[in-house]
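It is worth pausing here to work through a concrete case rather than discussing structure prediction in the abstract. The textbook approach is simple: state the sequence, then state the predicted structure, then interpret. We follow exactly that order.
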Amino acid sequence: MVKEHTSVVACPDCRGSLEEINVGSEVMGFVCQRCQLIYPIKDDILILLGSKSRNYNLEYDLIRNIEQKIQSDSRLTEWLLECINKTLNLLASHKETKSWEWEDEEFWARHYAEETTVTAPQNWNDRIWQREFLVERLADRTNLRGKTILDVGCGEGQNFRLLLSKYCDETTLYIATDICLEGLKLNRSRNTHNNSLYVLCSADSLPFHSELIDILCYFGILHHTERKAKTIPRDSELVRSGGYILIHEAVPNPLKLLPGQLKSRLSRWLGDTEETSAHEERIERRDLFAQLVSVKELEVVSVKGDGGLFYFEMMRFFRTSMLNNKKLFNFISSLSILLAKTLGPIFPPLRSSGIRLLVKKS
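Step two, the predicted structure:
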């Protein structure tokens, strides 16, 4: 599948075109003529990392392997070897450093490695049922057959596999991106949609050409990025006119609006805990809307909150029942949203702690 879709990818630094590096019939990697840098492939997964997030441990041996193959093929140019040398030097400069993305990746690599050993995949019903709101409204507005879908920070791919794929056909191109190789491998092993492309890259530097994507999905990924909501304006350039952006994000916990001592006591009583990956900083609602408004071609066509104190307390005590009963889940979710609207202004913990947005690009 790599060779069939290489025209959609671009240099993560300059977004210029990439040329395939072919040795015989095998695509070994890519080169950007403008930046003069090499990008490898591992297990049919494209590795397209921007200069600040390149990874010595992951890429160095892959680039050296390309170098050895090129040296054995007299048809390939000296210029290409110079590009390889430049790339190896860049990787060597990252040997003792760790960028923002890779601090987070360590947690997720362990998570996905553990997930590959379980007999039953994780139950994602809560996230899937929440995100149905977005996908159903998307399907009402556009046909996903033949479209290009970009899933940013895809993880194991549950959002496409369990939600979006039912609206697609064999001509729909699914592009899965993540910083974690283990996540991409797990996604591929569970995904039955053949027309799929897997790209290891940073969510802060997506390596695709402008106006290529029909559906851009941010499902709980923006708060893991270094630039947070500020990634949206640049990424919106990837979306075709008439295309859509789906956003589901956690916003700051309403408990944080309470006075210090009351917040501390209520948090302990509620069993409020933080996730343990390196970057769990939530996005301020006002920052999210400010970035959307800054791009005149973007229009928010649907918006809905979720979560909040009532929802999370019900999930704490009745999690199994809620994850296996869609009617019960939707009833409690709807009641939580109602409480957020009516009592949230008076008692902040009842306010929504998540937001779902369907955005159209004119």
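Step three, interpretation. Residues 269-274 have pLDDT under 50 and may be disordered. Residues 230 and 291 are 6 Å apart (CA to CA).
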